[in-house]
Amino acid sequence: MGYHDARQIPNYWAYAENFALQDDMFASADSWSSWSTSIWFLAGRPSALSPPTRSTASSPLPLYKAQVSWRYYIFEGIEPDCEADEAVTCTPVAQGLKTEGAWNPLRDFTDVKEDGHAASPTVTGLSPNAGSTAGGTTVTVNGTGFAPGSSATTFTFGTTHASSVTCTSTATCTVTSPSHAAGAVDVRAVVGRQASPKTAADRYAYG
Question: What is the rounded distance in angstroms from the CA atom of residue 180 to the CA atom of residue 162?
Answer without folding.
Answer: 11
